[in-house]
Amino acid sequence: MSAVATEARLEARVRADVYAFLSSMIPYPKAKPNFGILEHVEFEDGPLEAARQAVILSETDIESMQAQHRILFPAVESQDAPSYETAYSKHDVFRQGQVMADVAGFYRAHGLKQGGMRRDRPDGIGSQLEFLGFLAAKQDQALADDNQDAADLCVETQQLFLADHVGGWAPEYGRRVEAVSDDPFFVAFGRFLTLWLETELDYLGVVPNDIDLGANMGPVGTATDVADPRIRWDDTESACGGPL
Questions:
Q1: Which residues face 84 on adjacent strands?
Q2: pLDDT digits (tens, 9 = 90+) for 34-55
Q3: Class level of CATH domain 3-233
């Protein structure tokens, strides 16, 4: 394998692991976080590296994290930091249905369907981050198999999914998590999520489609290898190959 191919695999694997970390922080915490890949990499981008360090050095405890999680993910959807894509676009039931169907279509095209150990909506932040990590891992596997066509397809899907969905709303979600959180970990997590996604958009050359951010939400700052996958393998053929 050439040095270029080895570097491409390393980048894909690191990206997959970062997305796995991000998505693993969305469920209700039962223990202090396992920082995984964040403890073993350094980013060239200064603000992103500072955010990484802030995450792993954040001083918190499980009680504080659990209390903050209950605020960020209440039984009734948060108006300060909604964790679903459709909350960031106009409240049009037909538009919301189109978004949900389109996201689910991405999953199906790559051999996945909603379900697994955790239940979540297709447009949930956890599901969408998990899907991007899955695609990066499949890209790594395709490169290992010397299947450039499959690797290119995985990259194209990441670009489309970021442009049509994640890139348009999730950076704003991260900013809102940072702004409304009191727990040091979630403050750092929100900032890291925003900067990571902005770096990803630049890395993949993606300009996200416009979303009317904030039109239906309260203002920021006012109170108003994934262990528990939200998406799982279907039996249909995947666009990037079989299961990992």
A1: 124
A2: 999 999 999 999 999 999 999 9
A3: mainly alpha
